[in-house]
Amino acid sequence: MSKPIKRIAVNTGGGDAPGLNAVIQSVAIAAANRGWDCFGIRDGFNGILFPERYGEGGVLRLTRDKVRGIGHLGGTMLGTTNKGNPLHFPINMPDGSVREVDRSDEILTYFATHEIDALVAIGGDGSLTIANALHEKGLRVVGVPKTIDNDLDKTFTTFGFDTAVGFATECLDRLHSTAESHQRVMVVEVMGRYAGWIALHTGIAGNAHAILIPEIDFDLDSVAAKIRQREEDGRQYSIVMVAEGAQAKDGHREVLADAEVGHAERLGGIGERVAQGLAERTGKETRVVVLGHLLRGGSPTAFDRLAALRFGAAAVRALDAGHSGVMVALGLEGVNYVALAEVAGHMRAVPLDSDTVQTGRDLGICFGD
Ligand code: F6P
Question: Which of 258, 273, 266, 181 minimizes the C-alpha distance to 220?
Answer without folding.
Answer: 273
